[in-house]
Amino acid sequence: MSSNADVVVVGGGVIGCAIAYYLSRERTRVIVLERGLIGGEASGAAAGMLAPLAEAHGPSAFLDLCLASHRLFPELTDTLYAETGVDVEYVPSGMLRVAFSEADEIELRSQINWQDRLGMGVRWIDGEGARGLEPLLSPRVRGAIYSPLEHQVNPGKLVQGLARAAEAQGAVIRQETPVLGLLRRGHRVTGVRLTHETLSADNVVLAAGPWTKRLAAALGMRVPVKPVRGQMLALGGGPPPVRHIIWGPKGYVVPKPNGFVFVGATVEDVGYRKSTTKRGLAFLRRMANALVPAFSYATHVDAWAALRPGSADSLPILGAAPGWEGLWVASGHFRNGILLAPITGQLMARSLLEGKQAEALSPFSPARFQGA
Questions:
Q1: Of 5, 104, 116, 6, which is closest to residue 53 (Cα–Cα)?
Q2: Which value, to the nearest 10 degrees, does the dihedral of the CA atoms of residues 344, 345, 351, 357 take?
Q3: Is the confidence at residue 162, as pLDDT, over 90?
Q4: How far apart are CA 286 and CA 272, in angstroms?
């Protein structure tokens, strides 16, 4: 048995669902195939920060992409609520990136010069000013960058909102449907092979996180995406002692609307092992306590781990697959999948509809790895 679609998206995380959402708005026939459950891997396990400055090292095409996506969230969250009733819990919490040492302070202050030109309202505040915003912040904090426009969402609800909105516009989403391989005719990809059927499509998008590499390799294409384990925990037991996202040299804490605080995250190259470890969770607890000593009295509510798609150069891999017609890649977002979902969905949808890669995707093209 075979089915047909304009686009088959392999992967039902936030990236795959965002692509399906923007395509379905243009009445494109889309099928999303997810090996497990929608948002069941890294997307649903994320902290949900919308923090384009947190890991940027200076002006770059990557920073431009992050900022462009950041600007899309207010309208997107309103639209998803209007279309589906899903509240993605967009919270304008703001962020404090704190310094404990003189070296930390020098590093953060050096970033103010270029961040100040971006219109994000960042400014340096001393330790007393930081504790004015967050009274329970560690007395060891000597200063911080206050970034009032870096916010957060509920990542699981964002994925569900995108998926439901795409379905309402005609997309088909199939869970627990692993893709075993790609169909091809000459140098054109024509669909996908499933356990008991094949699906034909004009275009196939590989948005399968760290599982993208295997599917691409079957065609002899190098897409260097690997799993990077991130462990996180949730603290509770009382009102959150902070209101802002607090980002320190070793991790972050994110207060959530439900009263929990998410603490993350480890960065571990351990293959496809997704389990938590005592050592990893102990590290997170110590880090949270160092940022806010009051967390030492908080209750450990939950813990989890996920495999984020890291790339060989730490940049996302987006665009047309070189040497193949009808094949596209959208992976390698690492710790920025939630933030980059809207712009990735928009640019990939535009590229697919126009039949050519959007210019803004050029710095992230899969072609940069071929022959390397």
A1: 116
A2: 10
A3: yes
A4: 26
Q: How confident is the model at residue 1 (pLDDT cuts 50, 70, 90)?
A: very low
The reply to whether omega before 265 is within 30° of 0 (cis) is yes
Tokens representing 225? 């995406």
Task: Indicate the fold that domain 2-83+155-224+313-369 takes in CATH.
Answer: FAD/NAD(P)-binding domain (3.50.50)
Q: Is-above-0.90 flag for pTM?
A: yes
In the DSSP assignment, the letter for residue 91 is: B
Residue 348: pLDDT over 90: yes
CB 341, CB 318: distance < 8 Å: no
Token output for 251: 């991790």
pLDDT of residue 311: 96
Report the half-sphere exposure of 11 (CA within 13 A, side-chain side): 27
d(CA 318, CA 93): 30
Residue (of 59, 47, 19, 369) closest to 216 by Cα position: 369
Q: Where in the chain is the domain with CATH 3.30.9.10?
A: 92-150+227-311
Task: Determine the Cα–Cα distance for residues 247 and 94; give it in Å rounded to an integer.
Answer: 11
Q: Regarding beta strands 188-193 and 245-247, do their DSSP bridges make them parallel or antiparallel, or are they unpaired?
A: unpaired
d(CA 45, CA 263): 12
The reported pLDDT for the residue numbered 370 is 83
Q: Average pLDDT, stretch 180-206?
A: 96
At 311 the three-state DSSP class reads strand
* Number of Cβ atoms within 10 Å of the Cβ of 107: 13
Q: What's the CATH number for 92-150+227-311?
A: 3.30.9.10
- The residue type at 119: G
Percent of residues, the chain, with pLDDT higher than 90:
96
One DSSP character per residue, 219-252 reads: TT----EEEEEEEEEEEESSS-S-SSEEE-SS-E
Q: Can you tell me the mean pLDDT for 119-144? A: 97
- Specify whether the CB–CB gap between 159 and 43 falls below 8 A: yes
pLDDT tens by residue, 243-271: 999 999 999 999 999 999 999 999 999 99
The closest of 14, 68, 72 to 43, measured between CA atoms, is 14
